[in-house]
Design goal:
single chain; 77% helix
Length: 431
């Protein structure tokens, strides 16, 4: 669906590349996306489980089921992204997410909460991801690292803000009021910019990626530019991408690292509270993690072309492993802030590096369908993390065993990263 009246009117009047408007749109979507994030939900766990008597496993299962739904739907949604573009995907996702989150305020049963949060979580894990990075990768090549780091910064700003907004609302008028405000925030910030200003590709406005700027291979490493040695864009189909070792090593890294991300994110507030921290302090610790994620995303986005994607992935996984060790040893407030900082560095890294890797390795041609398959792996991995944390917490009474498992997974991800290389270019795969 094309809706280019405002962009066609605005583009000639801009003193800069319209792609930066696109970046603004996806930043708004990325901020709004954090409404049903696991870190936001973690603020609601204690008040909701206390009122209804639900187990931690039950709440975690809602996150996991939403992830499974996203995993099933992502390959199909990836094809829709290639056909219709990011505007349609993002606008629909924002509307559905905003209203379902607001309706959670009416919860009286576990089934009602499950149904609504699963829908919101499915949108978070699938359509939002595809729409945001699909738009970025269509509009940027040379500036892809910078653009991706900016969206990571914005998403982490949202992840920092949403738990604080939720905690303030809970203290003011209870958890039901908190969900209403979170849902309204999603709608207000996310919908209008993407509905009015989003354009699928620069070619639709008579432009080129980066405004026509040619990639500067002299500033990038040989490894990261294996597909750019001829200054041509890689153009893999989904079938061709699935036949490369690069696709499966990136997928393995994803499978190992995302249970750590989701499992710790959801349960970090309860873990901190159980270790003796005040609930409000716990909320600020979570915001600290988000702040470090934001700045780490910027740094990784700038450095990824210079230190290679491989080394960037290694660094992110090592940061997550050190975070799990720190969380096991928490006994004072500053321990919590240190663990959150390391966790934030790792998350900021993977949220920035992996989208760049998929785009740089395989190009724009079939990004949606390729990313759709990869996203199924990602959200399946994310779905397992909260279940591991919640189940082991209910069985053992604390989070020690789950943190040990997450430490092992993050160290295994280091090995997967070492084996990850760009696919070798072939003439037929270059545009």
């Amino acid at each position: 669906m094309k809706f280019h009246f405002i962009p066609n009117w605005l583009n000639p009047k801009l003193p800069f590349y319209y792609g930066w408007i696109i970046l603004f749109c996806v930043c708004c979507a990325g901020f709004a996306r954090q409404g049903p994030a696991v870190a936001t939900l973690s603020i609601f766990i204690f008040p909701m489980t206390s009122e209804f008597g639900w187990s931690f496993t039950a709440v975690s299962s809602a996150v996991s089921l939403g992830g499974i739904l996203a995993a099933v739907s992502s390959p199909f949604l990836g094809l829709l992204l290639d056909k219709y573009g990011s505007r349609t995907i993002l606008c629909i996702s924002i509307i559905i997410t905003g209203f379902t989150v607001m309706l959670i305020s009416l919860t009286q049963s576990l089934f009602f909460f499950f149904a609504l949060f699963c829908i919101a979580r499915m949108n978070f894990a699938g359509p939002f991801d595809l729409g945001i990075y699909g738009a970025l990768n269509n509009w940027f090549m040379h500036y892809r690292g910078i653009a991706t780091s900016v969206i990571t910064f914005t998403q982490m700003t949202g992840l920092m803000a949403m738990p604080l907004i939720a905690q303030i609302c809970i203290l003011y008028d209870g958890w039901r009021f908190g969900w209403i405000v979170i849902g309204a925030t999603v709608l207000i910030i996310g919908f209008l910019p993407n509905w009015a200003l989003m354009v699928r590709r620069p070619e639709d406005l008579g432009l080129k990626p980066d405004g026509g700027l040619e990639p500067n291979t002299s500033e990038q490493t040989e490894e990261n530019n294996l597909n750019r040695q001829t200054n041509l864009e890689p153009s893999f189909t989904r079938h061709e991408a699935l036949g490369t070792m690069s696709f499966w090593m990136l997928s393995l890294y994803t499978l190992l690292i995302y249970p750590v991300q989701a499992g710790i994110s959801l349960h970090q507030a309860p873990h901190l509270i159980e270790r003796g921290l005040d609930p409000t302090i716990a909320a600020t610790v979570i915001s600290t993690f988000s702040l470090f994620s934001a700045f780490a995303g910027v740094i990784f986005g700038i450095l990824v072309s210079r230190i290679t994607i491989r080394l960037s992935l290694v660094a992110a996984a090592l940061a997550l492993s050190s975070s799990t060790i720190s969380m096991i040893l928490i006994s004072e407030v500053w321990h919590g802030y240190f663990a959150a900082a390391m966790f934030g560095i790792g998350i900021g890294g993977i949220l920035t590096i992996l989208p760049i890797a998929w785009a740089d390795f395989f190009g724009r041609r079939s990004f949606g369908s390729i990313r759709g398959i990869a996203l199924s792996i990602q959200v399946t991995a994310q779905a397992s993390g909260p279940l591991i944390s919640g189940f082991l917490r209910d069985q053992t009474g604390d989070y020690f065993m789950s943190l040990v498992i997450f430490m092992g997974l993050s160290l295994a991800a280091v090995l997967a990263a070492i084996l990850t290389k760009p696919p070798k270019p072939f003439t037929k795969n270059l545009k």
